[in-house]
Every structure is written in structure tokens, then in C-alpha cells.
């Protein structure tokens, strides 16, 4: 008799659709498990920098279900997976329409119109680099500074340095405060934004965000909102934060109740005593890292100390490049460096490691330094020429370049005229 025909093979199951998000592994070896817990069986692993696709996530996104390039899928701990962000649609052009200029006079007036009789709206100092925003008119150039100051300067005191933005843009924003925007191309592209503050040049006062409730919690604010609400001239984000399990108190719509991770104080009131690497400021305005000098007046904790006594901390985690916020102190204590590095924006700025943060602080004269909360929290803001908050860097929140994250506490600096 004729043998029975071979049964048709079962069709391969349709692969589970992905979410469209891609991640890079940040651990030297990361286990892949059958389920979202260490209790599940290990079915494979990822290597450092291996790229995978997200399929799903558990409720709090602490575990991600991923698909490897060989189609193996399973669950990995989310803390070791860094999302690969799509390059921004509006990368900064390498060349501007109008020239960049360098100031050659010791002091150069910025006027409201292209005339020596026009009103003065600001001034530049020698070696400031500024972009012109229109064609020159009768020996005058219209310029714009990073804080939004716009006006006209005499071309007699401006040196044309070309239409390509210089790798380091230098501008005096306030008396005793220099802004530097540094573009680095190797070993990867990243952009550093720094405010170098000379404490003996003016009267500076500091504030850390106060708590909203006796429990040490506070309503979330972006750095821009903090600057406007507290009337400071400069501000950066502070400590990392958590959402209280049993929150007490309420916040306005669009704001969440948060608690900073570590030790924190504002204007003499200590509202969190959890030990952590901390930046301290006493009532005399003296900054110290790791150990207070006298009675604590303001304090904000960070992720970790990266520089102490002029030497880089040796046991820093290797980590992957990421957005960073850092504060440095010069050896004599009279100089403060507020620094933010943009990251997670391929082709624009990919961020730096902790080792690179320490090296950058040293390059700006820091003797001691602390890395604050980074990632999507990193933001550096100044009071603009018109009094509004001006964001100097390009943060990234919810994968949106330029969007600020609302965080728990901040460090603000006020200048008394």
C-alpha cells in the first residue's frame, strides 16, 4: 500500500512585535532570563555594547523583554540597558549664515541700534566670541550672546573668525561668571557647558531647593522653573530622587511629590539626613565636597565624588557615556565650576564617562569635584538678558532633545548688584 503522506510542518509562529525601542548593553555580561526576575532560568547573555530590541516591559520597567540579533528573546534587568535615542531632526549646522566674531577691545558696548548714539543694552569683554545674526550695517554687527543678549557692536573692535562655530565659545555672562561651550569630536562627539564663577568678583549667594513638607519631600520643578521661582541668576539640577511610597502633601497639577536621595539642607534647615557624597555650603558661602566646613547652611548630594585634592578618584565605575552634571571647586576655594555635558543624542552629543567628568573639571581648574544626578535630569540655566530663564544646554527627557525633566532639588546662585 501507498505510505501515508508526510504531514505538513507547522508554520513558524509569528515573532512577537517589538516596541521600536533599541538598547545598548552597558554591562560586561548581562544575563537573559525566561521571566522578569532573578528567580527565572538563565537562557543566554548579552555582551558589552551589544544592541537589542525591546519587546515588552514589566509594570515598573525594571525588567525589559528584549530580542537579540539572533532572535533569542528573554528578560534583562533594565538598569544595564541604555536606550539608543534617534538622532535629533534639527542638528546644529556646521556653518552659520553670518560670521562669528572675537572681541578685541577690553570692553565693548552692545547698543540697541547700529549707531554710537543708540542706548547701551550690555557689554562684552576681550576675547568673548559671539555670533552675528544679520548682515553688517555701516560698520556695525548685530550679535547674540548665549543668554539672549542681542544688540549692535562696532566692527572696529570685532575680529571675524569665520562662519564655522569655534570649538570653544567663551562669553562673560555676568560679572565674575564666564560661560564656555566646548565641542569635542573624539573619542565621540559631546558638548560641554560650563559656568566658571569667580567668587571674589561679586557678592554671590547660594540656595538649595527647600523642602515643601516636614517629611523632606518637595514638589518637582524643572531647573528653569526653579530659577524663575527663586529669582537666582544661575541654576543646575541637584540630587537624584525617589517617589515616596506613602506621600504626604499635595502638589500643583503637573508636579509630583519627590524626595531627594541624600543629605540636603536649605538656608540652615536640614531636611534629609541620609548619608551620601555631598556638596556643602556654609553661611559664608564657602563650598566643600565630602565634608562640611563649619555649620551647614546649604547642602545638596550627588551621585559620587570624582575629584579630591586635585586627583581623580581611582575606583570610579567604567560606565558608559551619558549626560552628566558636575560641580567643581578650585584649590583656593574662590572658584566654582558648574558643568553639564549633553548626552544620549547620537551625532550631536553622546555624553561622557565619570572618568571624563573628572578630567573636564580639572581642565577648568577644579581641585575637588562631585558628580550630581545626570541622565535626563542634567540642565544648566541662567537668567537671560530679558529676565527670563535661558537653557544653555540641550537636555533630553522622554527621548525629546531640548525637553527638561522636573526634578527634586536644585542648586541656585544669586548675584547681588
Task: Give structural attributes.
single chain, about 425 residues, mainly beta, 8-stranded antiparallel sheet, 5-stranded antiparallel sheet, 2 helices, 37 strands, about 5% helix
Describe this structure in words.
With 417 residues, the chain is mostly beta strands. The chain is built from two helices and 37 strands. The protein has helices spanning 223-230, 354-363; strands spanning 22-25, 29-33, 42-47, 51-57, 63-67, 73-77, 81-83, 100-103, 107-111, 120-125, 129-132, 140-144, 150-154, 158-160, 168-174, 177-184, 190-198, 203-208, 218-219, 234-237, 241-242, 257-260, 264-266, 269-272, 278-282, 287-289, 296-301, 304-308, 311-312, 324-329, 335-341, 368-371, 380-383, 389-391, 396-397, 400-401, 410-416. The strands form nine sheets. An eight-stranded antiparallel sheet has the order 15-16-17-31-30-32-28-29, with helices on one face. Strands 6-5-4-1-7 form a five-stranded antiparallel sheet, with no helix packed on it.
What is this entry, summarized?
Helices cover 4% and strands 41% of the residues.
Amino acid at each position: 500500500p501507498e505510505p501515508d503522506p508526510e504531514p505538513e510542518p507547522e508554520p513558524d509562529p509569528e515573532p512577537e512585535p517589538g516596541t521600536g525601542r533599541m538598547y545598548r548593553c552597558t554591562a560586561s555580561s548581562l544575563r537573559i532570563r525566561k521571566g522578569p526576575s532573578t528567580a527565572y532560568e538563565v537562557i543566554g547573555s548579552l555582551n558589552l555594547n551589544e544592541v537589542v530590541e525591546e519587546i515588552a516591559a514589566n509594570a515598573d520597567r525594571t525588567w525589559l523583554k528584549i530580542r537579540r540579533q539572533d532572535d533569542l528573546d528573554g528578560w534583562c534587568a533594565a538598569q544595564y540597558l541604555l536606550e539608543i535615542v534617534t538622532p535629533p531632526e534639527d542638528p546644529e549646522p556646521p556653518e552659520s549664515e553670518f560670521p562669528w566674531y572675537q572681541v578685541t577691545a577690553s570692553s565693548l558696548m552692545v547698543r540697541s541700534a547700529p549707531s554710537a548714539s543708540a542706548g547701551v543694552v550690555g557689554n562684552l569683554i576681550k576675547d568673548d566670541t559671539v555670533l552675528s545674526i544679520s548682515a553688517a550695517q555701516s560698520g556695525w554687527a548685530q550679535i547674540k550672546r548665549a543668554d539672549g543678549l542681542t544688540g549692535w557692536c562696532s566692527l572696529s573692535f570685532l575680529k571675524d573668525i569665520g562662519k564655522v562655530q569655534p570649538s570653544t565659545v567663551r562669553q562673560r555672562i555676568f560679572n565674575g561668571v564666564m560661560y564656555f561651550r566646548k565641542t569635542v569630536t573624539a573619542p565621540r562627539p559631546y558638548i560641554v557647558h560650563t559656568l566658571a564663577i569667580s567668587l571674589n568678583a561679586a557678592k554671590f549667594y547660594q540656595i538649595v531647593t527647600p523642602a515643601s513638607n516636614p517629611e523632606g519631600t518637595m514638589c518637582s520643578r524643572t531647573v528653569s522653573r526653579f530659577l524663575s521661582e527663586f529669582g537666582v541668576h544661575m541654576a543646575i539640577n541637584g540630587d537624584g530622587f525617589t517617589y515616596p511610597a506613602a506621600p504626604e502633601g499635595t502638589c500643583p497639577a503637573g508636579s509630583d511629590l519627590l524626595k531627594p536621595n541624600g543629605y540636603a539642607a536649605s538656608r540652615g534647615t536640614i531636611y534629609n539626613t541620609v548619608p551620601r557624597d555631598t556638596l556643602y555650603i556654609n553661611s559664608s558661602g564657602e563650598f566643600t565636597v565630602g565634608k562640611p566646613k563649619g555649620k551647614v547652611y546649604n547642602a545638596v548630594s550627588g551621585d559620587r565624588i570624582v575629584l579630591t585634592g586635585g586627583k581623580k578618584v581611582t575606583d570610579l565605575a567604567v560606565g558608559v557615556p551619558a549626560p552628566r552634571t558636575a560641580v567643581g571647586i578650585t584649590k583656593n576655594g574662590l572658584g566654582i565650576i558648574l558643568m553639564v555635558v549633553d548626552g544620549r543624542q547620537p551625532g550631536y552629543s553622546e555624553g561622557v564617562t565619570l572618568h571624563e567628568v573628572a578630567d573636564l573639571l580639572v581642565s577648568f581648574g577644579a581641585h575637588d569635584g562631585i558628580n550630581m544626578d545626570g541622565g535626563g535630569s542634567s540642565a544648566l540655566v541662567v537668567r537671560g538678558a530679558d529676565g527670563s530663564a535661558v537653557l544653555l544646554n540641550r537636555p533630553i527627557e522622554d527621548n525629546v532633545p531640548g525637553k527638561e525633566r522636573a526634578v527634586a532639588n536644585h542648586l541656585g546662585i544669586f548675584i547681588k548688584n
